[in-house]
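Running log. JK asked me to keep both predictions on one page so they can be read side by side. First protein, sequence followed by its tokens:
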Amino acid sequence: MSAPRTNIEKQERDHKPSLLGIRGAMIFGALMLLGVFFYVIINGGDEDADAVINTDQASEPEASVPAVDPVEPGTNQSQTNDPSSIDVDDNN
């Protein structure tokens, strides 16, 4: 089913301000993208920026972190093989 009265020239004339606004917004967006692109390119070689050093530390142990026992001293019973040192709570 088509519209009963289609006059493309009249519709184009009536919607000319809207179409111009849409074109203007598209041009503005393109100019903003180009501006951001050139801004990034120009400032990409900034001498004052901190250098990013990618070092592979997976093969090296971390020397700055000391080995810490997650359990308080004397309470970790899994390190001893003596069954008499295991405390059993009979108050159930």
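And the second, directly underneath as requested:
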Amino acid sequence: MPAEAPPAPAARLLELHCQTLVDPDRSQRLVVFTAVPGSESHAGLRLLSA
């Protein structure tokens, strides 16, 4: 009998701000997602980064 995986944390919707930075040659992009500090989305991002 296979071992059971531990329960995964509940999935939740994250409200994120997105900013795209482009270099002068437009050959590369950096996409940054942030959440409002102290919000549930901020806490969710911290969980994902752990």
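Observation for JK regarding the second prediction: The chain has a mean pLDDT of 86.
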